[in-house]
Amino acid sequence: MAYDPIQEDCLRLVLGAMQRERIYPIENAPFIESCLQKYNRDPASLVATDRDRSFHLVTLATETIDYRLPFAQDDETADREAAEAEAQLREACELDPGNWDAKRMLAAVEAETNDAYVGYLIDHRAEVEADLERIVSSARDVYAREFANGFGKRPYVRWLAAIAARALVAGQYRLALDAAEDCLAFAPDDPADVRLTAVLAMAKLECTRDDLRRFRQKHAAAYRSPTPARRRHHLAEKTSDAWELLAELAIAYHELDFAGATRALRSILQTYPHAAEALYFQAEFPDGVFGRVNVMPGSEDELVLAISEATPLLQEGLGAPDNAGLAVWIATHELVEGDLQESAKRQRAPHGARGVGGGGEN
Length: 362
Fold this sequence. Notes:
mainly alpha; about 0% strand; globular
């Protein structure tokens, strides 16, 4: 799911090494394995150009911003690591002016507001696209073409995905959906998982569940899992993922179809481990700056991430003074409360004791 910055850094450096040593065909397994071992020992041993160094710095900054800062133990540590990551992004921009990931991430760090960041992304989108076209048109050998048709396209995909994700946060739901559609038109297999943002935007735009079904049919390629790396957990394969289930739940709730909303809620509880806790606390997680953060498909972490991104939906209310919105409806639903009570009983039970029902799917 989403992009793995370390994997991408490694594969980019492997391709660069192949180009320098004129390794052909590029599917040379022994050479690739040798490079992978070098990367695991010391990534710097494969860094040979400013472009290599620039993207490697992006990888280091991503590890800090997206994966360490959210869990920093104290403000002093967080401030120090944030400053280091920002310096890495600045250096990355200086080393390679065409590193649009570095520019985008630096803009995200520096932007005073989310609206300002969305404006930056929109203002520079055409430049990113033009740079991609230049990379593709100037590719003269097999290595350059491999880069252009793969790694070279990813910054533009991530740029469009960022517009969609941050426009959703900004309440610009039509812009979010349009950017997601543009991204899917450019990359139908949806390597950035932008369809997940799209369905949340559709729910906020008061689309129907039939509209969601038509969206899935239109973008069928985005819903296929062509590689084991993107294969979902065996339980999750039986139903939609958390983003779609939350979108369906929100749409049903808005239509006052509480039975339909309950069915979607039940599907979430049956699909994800410890789902009741996640649905009750509804913790907000910072958006990934490189891209959507990597989590295990079908895991509790995936549900937490989906709930966090669905915050604009959870804030949906029915307008009545005594109704605090969808978030409260979910957190206080009898299905959620029932699972929480069962979980509490299991925690209180003596070690090795079995519940009356012998356990369930959750």
